[in-house]
Queue: 2 jobs
Job 1
Amino acid sequence: MYKKFFGLKENPFNVNPDPRYLFLTPQTEEAFACLTYGIETRKGFILLTGEVGTGKTTLLNKLLDWLRQQRASTAFVFNPRLTVSQFFDFVMNDFGIPCESGMKSQVLLKLNEWLLERYQAGERAVLVVDEAQNLSPQMLEEIRLLTNLETSTEKLLQIVLAGQPELEKKLNQPQLRQLRQRITLRAKTLPLSQEQTRGYVQERLRIAGAEGPDIFSPEAIEAVHKYARGIPRVTNLLSEQALIAAFADHLNPIPREVVEDAARDFGLHEVDPNAQAVSQNAPADDEEARLNESLLQTLHALVNRLSLNRQPADSEEKK
C-alpha cells in the first residue's frame, strides 16, 4: 500500500521473525556469541530468556541459519505443548531419524545410535526448543535426561531452551534443580535503548529498500521508543501503523504526531505494552492478538480516510 510512496521494495516492519532483519545490538551479539560458543564447545544445556517481543525467535532463526552453514543437524520445536511421545516423534522426525517402533526405549536407542554416528563423523546435533516456559515440569525432566546421552568427555546432544522470564522462575522450582544445575550458559535478549531504536528502525527501512532522507523524523523515532518501550515487536507494529497513517495523509517524513496517534490507536499511551505479560503472566499470543486486532481496526479507518482524501482530486479530474 505505502511502499511506492516511501520508496520501499518490501514491508520493513513485518512481525514474522525474519533473520535478515536481525538488528545486532551489543546485547544481541553477546547472546548470539554465547549460543554459538556453547554449541561449538559441546556445553550441553544453554538457556536463552527475554521478555515478550524482544527478538528471541528471530535470534533463534539466525542461530539455525548459522547451524545449517556449519552443517550441523538440527531439530526445532516451536510448539512445546506436546505430550512426551509427541515431543519425541517431532524431534526424531525433524532430525530425520527413522524409527518404526513407538516405544520410548527403542526411540532413545535409535537416537543414541544416531548421535554417536554424528559424533564420530565430527558433526554436531542441536535441539532448539522455543517458548519453553510452556513446558511442563515432566517434559523438562525428559529433556534433561537427554543430556545423559554422552561420551566419557562430551555431550552428544546440544540443547537450547528459549523462553520468557517465566522459564527462569519455573527452573527455580525444587523438583527441577537437577536441570537448573546442568545449564552451563545463559543468554538474554533485552529491550532497545532510544539510540538503538533509531538504528533498528533505520536498518529495517534500509533492508526494505529505503534510500535518501530519513522516513521517520527524529521526533517520530523518539515517540516510537517512548510508546514501544524498546520492545522490537511493538516497535514493528507501531512503525507499520505510522507508515500507513502517513501514507494516507501524504506525509513524508513522518512527524511525531502520527506516531502518537498510532500509539493511541493501540492504547500504548496508557498501558506499557509489556505490563500485562509481566504483571498478569498473560501469554504472548494474547498480547499479539490484541495488538493485531487494533491494527486491523485502525487500518480500516485509515483506508476510509485515504478514500476521502482522493475524492476531491477525482472530482477535479472529472471537471
Job 2
Amino acid sequence: MDCKFLVTVVDGTLTDKDSIASPSRRKEIVQARQLAIYFTKRLTNLTLKRIGAHLGGRNHSTVAYSLRMVSERIETDRHFKGIVSDLEEKVGGW
C-alpha cells in the first residue's frame, strides 16, 4: 500500500515506513503503526484484515485493538490529540 497519507504519518511521527510494518514493539514505532492503522481505516474502505495485511501481516483483531487504543488515547491525552489533529490537517486534502 503506497498512500500519501501514510507518508504524512511517517513524517509526522519521525519513523520510517519499513518500521511501521516491522514486528518491533518499541513505543514510538507502535504509536506510529497505530496511527497508520487509524488513518488507513478513516481514509480508505479497506477491511481490518486488508489493513493488517498491508501493515506487516497483522490480524484483524490487532488492527481493531489499535483503532480502539488510538480513539481512547485521543480522549484522554491532550498532547496525543494534538498530534492526531496536526496529522488530520495535513492529510485532510486527500
